[in-house]
Amino acid sequence: MARVAARLSTDGEQSTHPVDEVLPLPKLALYGFQHVLAFYAGAVIVPIIVGNALKLSPEQLVYLINADLFTCGIASIIQAWGIGRIGARLPLIQGVTFTAVSPMIAIGLGAGGGTAALLVIYGAVITAGIATFAFAWLPAKAFRTVMRLFPPVVTGTVITVLGIVLIPVGLNDAAGGLGSPDFGDPKNFAYAGGTMLFILILMKIGKPFLSSISILLGLVVGTTVAFLLGDAKFGDVSKSEWVGITTPFHFGAPKFEWFPIVLMLIVMLITMVETTGDTYAVGDIVGKEVDSETVARALRADGAATALGGVLNSFPYVAFAENVGLVRMTKVKSRFVVVAAGVFMIVLGLLPKAAAIVAGVPHGVLGGAATVMFAMVALAGIQTLAKVDLKEEKNALIVGVSLAFALLPATVPVLFSKHMDPDLSSLLNSGVTLGATAAIVLNLVFNGLGKEGAHDAPEVEVELPAQAAEADTDSSAAVPAQPGEGEAARTPAS
User: Fold this and answer.
1) Domain assignment of residue 187, given as a range
2) H or E segment at 126?
3) CA angle 312, 318, 321 (to 5 degrees)
4) Residue 134's closest CA among 352, 3, 299?
């Protein structure tokens, strides 16, 4: 009998591109551009929704989109490359958080809409970013105490919630995009299904390189087919300017009002849970140990990017869960791919025509690719939950009840639109907000603060037959004890 140390393996394969490897320039460009396409819709949808709600002009809306892409690029480079003790140095793309959409619209409408509303929003965003940045510099002992609020049962639930909440976004795109005249048209589902099928075929029978750029190729092939059939429109490219420069405080000096600031601070608390979960998830995927200092560096990057976003006419930033799913799918784990993606985003933020070309990808094609990636986000959360002893009833309750809360806004929207105070609705009308809050509160009720290092999966010695040990070491996982459990919970799981 051979004694082996078994650890959780997220993909069962040895990566050919470790997290700190600098790839050849052509591969960096391809993989980086794939990340941009994977996150592009999620990146631009927030300024589009907020800008339309505040009744901004088309020119102002284009400026918001360019500012968002430009700041996304800077933020992603800070997170992946790292500057001193800022940035996790992991393949994490930074994007505008969906959690902030409802609160920002509520703040903006309360301020009367238009560019005047943007000034109040930016004052709250800058303040919340600085507060997040300062929080992540707490003394190590105090920070570790706070991080004990987020053991695997919490972060795994939050990542799973993110995937579940995002999947309908992908499906709506697959249907043609909410509000579009042809929403629900079967041809949109045909494009989505064809794109998805093409991606899955590449993943199944393609060589490693083709599999690693399957999302990119799926988007390119799907868009080409749609263009040949007359369903991909690029008319806006000729109307766009060649160069668009993002300048600080373009719309005027920010205004600082207490209620918008409080709302944005609560938003940032939720995004900290998201980033914490994404950091642990991508650490598992790339095989790099994540400790409290890594999480602190990731949160500092969030805070710095959010404050910078308020200065550069953008919004709060978070580690994008969509791209965590892409890292797992492609198994391209080099953080410098994200740095390359950041460079592409900066260029797109400076070239409205280039951004208009990317924006020409039909909703159906984008939805087919996005649905696959969002499903992989949910899987990343499930893999984190694999570290949790769900046979323990209290852990099962935390996960199950939190998922139920997360589905409430989408299932019973009338509760928030007609039967709740508008200010309270702007805060709670988010599946991520409700699911994350429920997970944190229920974990405190059932498990308390728990122990330090709850995220670290200890290596456990298990007995395996000699022949099986050589083949199956990577497929075994050790389940770490959850807060409040005894030594009986430290049992190996395969």
Assistant:
1) 17-389
2) helix 114-135
3) 135
4) 299
